[in-house]
# Entry
Amino acid sequence: MDGGLVHGPATAFSEPSAITTPAAAAYDHARLEGRRRVLRWLIHNLAFRFLVKVEGAEGLENLPAQGGAIVMINHIAFVDPVVVMGLLPRNIVPMAKIEAYRYPVFGLLPRIWEAIPVRRGEGDRAALRKATQVLGAGEVVLVAPEGTRSPSMRRGKEGVAFLGWRSGSLIVPTSVEGTEGFPSVSSGRWRQAGATVRLGRPFRFKASEGRPGREALRSMTEEAMYILAALLPERRRGVYSDLSHATTEWIDFA
# Structure
């Protein structure tokens, strides 16, 4: 089943969606800061108290204190992006599938937050352009390169590599664990382990002469996904379970 709030674009670019969303307007960083702080307060004081059990986050020192960055996550449950947005110390702008805006009640969050809408199953020029603007404004973009929820990792889409290369932004690999079964008010689920987030060492993609081709973008994506997989328990690694295949030809660690 596809994730609701976070989606990674592919690279077979399409025309912008006809659906009108708040993110279709010019990006205004200052206008949204106060609104997002209020929403983060609600996540901490309502969602984390009544709907999602949260254990905490590790490696927060790996998130740059300022400047544009891409937080790249695995995606196992609906609440993954909300957990990450609530635990990280900076306002995060998620890339959300366009269908999420139509959800009853939950569709209000990406609208009010002004997430970046993405058309599923195809690249979206408008989404990548907006994400680049957000990064250029010095903010953090949240991307799930798999583009769908899965208990173990699936093949990542090349959009994360293109966005990372085009923007030159740091990429922070971030693992999410323990979110299955949430949101929940069940005492049985709350007695079990809760959600944890772990941030790994940030990196950039190496510069290249001209725009990388599809083969290069594929290699860049695979290298990034193996870095993310190394932060996860083996049962979560899926197609990236054999870490001996990992390479860093395109990677510059910070």
About this structure: The chain has one domain: 30-253. The first helix runs from residue 29 to 51. The two ends are 34 Å apart (CA to CA).
